[in-house]
Amino acid sequence: MRKRDRAGATSTVLVTGAAQGIGRATASALAVRGFRLGLLDRAGGPLGELVADLRGAGAAVASEVADVRDGESLGRAVAALEDRVGPTDVLVACAGVGSLSSALDLDLEGFRQMLEVNVLGVARSIEAVLPGMFARGSGHIVGLSSVAGSRGMPWMPGYSASKAALTTYLEALRPPLKRRGVTVTTVYPGFVRTGMTVGTPFRRPVPMMEPDEAARHVVRAVLRRPRDYTFPLSTALGMGVLRWLPNFLFDRMMDRAGPRALTSEF
Question: What is the pTM of this model?
Answer without folding.
Answer: 0.86
